Every structure is written in C-alpha cells, then in structure tokens.
C-alpha cells in the first residue's frame, strides 16, 4: 500500500518507532537513524555495551542475538544506520536522505534539532512534498521529557484506574505511547493522501503529543465529567455507566460479563438462573441497575461462584451476552496468527507484511551510506505472506 513511500525515522523508544513500524508494515521503506556510542553503561543480553535506541538495553528478556524484547517489539521492517548527528558526516548523510524522503519522524526535545543544524521549517519550505511528524511528551515548545508513566499520571488515567480503595494505578502497557504512535501514523497517512493539494510548510509539520493523545483517549469518561460537573472516580473492574459490566469469580477462575443493553441484561439473568432478577422491574433498565449496583453485583457474584467459568461462559455466549475468561498474556498470544514473536507476525489490526527483522545497530550503515534509499534494493528482504503466516 505504501510501497513508494520513504520514511526517515529519527525517533527512539516507543511512540515514534511504533509509528514508523506501522508505516513499514504497510509497505513503506523505513530507515531508522540511531546514535552511535555507549548509553550510560547499559548492556544487552550478551553483556555488550549498548548504543543506539535506549530500548536496546531495556531487558531482560533478550533474544538469542542479545536484542531486548522491548526493542524488537517496535522496530521490524526497517533498515538500521548509526549516525552521529553532531558530526558533519552524519549531518550530511541525514540531509542526503531527507532530500528524497516523503516522511520524517522525530521525537527530539524542543530545540535539539536546531542545535544540530536541522531546521525543520526551512526543510519543509525547501521540499514542498515533505511531511514532518514530531512526537512530543507535552506539546510543541515543551522541553519536558515524554515518559508514558508521567503522562498517565497527569492525563487523568491513573485517577480512574485501580480499585476505589487502593492507589491510583497505571495501565499495564505503555498505552499513552501506543496511542500517540497510532495517532501519528493516522496523521501521516492523512497528510500523504492530501499531499497533491499544495499546503504551506507549517501545515506539513505534524505535532503529536503523548499528553494530548492521552486526554483525547478519555472519550466517554471526559464527557461524563463535562456533562455532570462531577469528578471522575475509580471503579476498579466495574463501569461508570453500565451494570453489570465487571469481573466476577467463578469456582475456578475469573471471568467478565459486559451487559450493554436491557435486552442483554434479561438474557444474562436468565443464563445465570436469576429469574427473579430477570423479571424485576427495578432492574429492567440500565438506570435502575445503576441505582442497585452493589446488590446486583453481589447476587451475580454469588451465583457465578458456584460453577466453573467454562460453564457460565457457555451459557452466556449461547444467550448472546458479551463475556470472556480473564486470560494470561501467554493464553492470549496463543490465538495470535504467526505466534507471539514480533519477528514472525503482524497484528491482524494492521493489514501488512513482515519483510525485515528489527535491525542490529548500524546493520545497514555501509549500504545506506553507499546507496542511500537504494539500499532497499540490495537488502535480502525475506519473502513473507500476508498477516497470519506461520512460515
């Protein structure tokens, strides 16, 4: 789909690399630029000093080549080059690649590129088809480093995550980074679609921030707060607007029931053999169930605890009630086409292919220095099927 698009990736860690990986999965040629040299004594899985993207040292676990799982998760389908941007040679190489690039992605802190001699505004004026995407922590002009945990704290996410009587809790995935990376990919794709319409340089400089992506992702929680004027609260595994919509413990393991309509509620109550509740006028509507949240949760919890989860899942699914077992990560990955390794499959949500494994540091440096974007024609790209291939 993006076979004629060239993406220069100057980013590191997660949001930027995830964005460029998505574009690479969709067929774009991506060159990842990393800094050479040691990073604060960090070591890879082989005990060697780590350079380049910080995530190369974020382990264990490490694979058989010594690469961290974290780095592997966001860097497939790229060529890798180590470049000292502070040197004239390094700046000359990046400038050479920029001339032919369609998209540049960076997540440098404010002013860092200017100090290196890279003026984004000038480059966009000089190259009228170039799209530049800057990913920041807290917006254009902010010098604050953008770390997911801090963003989750300040965006309101932690205030609404966790059990009511416990501490605020972060999400178990660096989700602010993930959402910002996907927002960046969407913005870039939109800019590419509209590129034939002349646009000023400032309109081709896309700025995505983790903080803005995170607050936008509050969606209905934010709207609840704006409409009601009340502060949002933590509901644990329950839902602010729906009942029953939470976790219950069966005789052997936990499951979730997610009732989204009054008809589903009647089917749920019948599937659980709670016939009195199915016919109770006070529970017939969602607003009524909200007002009797604790009572209904207790009744359902007591009934679910009497039998194994598989028994209830079978009955609830047969009745058309949304439900599911609480699975471990290993259990969830067992259903992913291509297996769990980032080298052997693309998410079904991204209709792309795996053509290249994540590069070793400066793995393609010699080729790129010699051939520029022509290096892709010389790299032994692995033949892969589309999503779901196990080969």
Structure description:
The protein is α/β, with parallel strands linked by helices and 391 residues long. Helix content is 35%, strand content 13%. It has 16 helices and eleven strands. The chain has a six-stranded parallel beta sheet, with helices on both faces. It has a three-stranded antiparallel beta sheet with strand order 9-10-11, covered by helices on one side. Helix 1 packs across helix 7 and helix 7 (175-193) packs across helix 8.
Quaternary form: single chain
Report how far apart the termini are. Answer: 22 Å
| Strands, count | 11
Number of helices: 16
Strand order of the largest sheet: 5-2-1-6-7-8
Shape: elongated
Which range does the strand content fall in? 5-15%
* Percent helix: 25-40%
Low-confidence stretches: 339-344, 382-391
Label the structural class: alpha/beta
Overall mean pLDDT: 90
User: How many strands, which pairing sense, and closed or not: the largest β-sheet?
Assistant: 6 strands, parallel
Cα-based radius of gyration, to the nearest Å = 25 Å
Features:
391 residues; alpha/beta; six-stranded parallel beta sheet; three-stranded antiparallel beta sheet; 16 helices; 11 strands; 13% strand; elongated
Protein topology:
Blueprint: E1 6-9, H1 15-25, E2 29-34, E3 38-43, E4 49-51, H2 69-72, E5 79-82, H3 88-100, E6 103-106, H4 112-115, H5 120-126, E7 131-136, H6 148-154, H7 175-193, E8 205-209, H8 210-216, H9 219-228, E9 245-249, E10 254-258, H10 262-271, H11 275-278, H12 286-291, H13 293-304, H14 309-318, E11 323-325, H15 329-333, H16 365-371
Parallel strand pairs: 1-2, 1-6, 2-5, 6-7, 7-8
Antiparallel strand pairs: 3-4, 9-10, 10-11
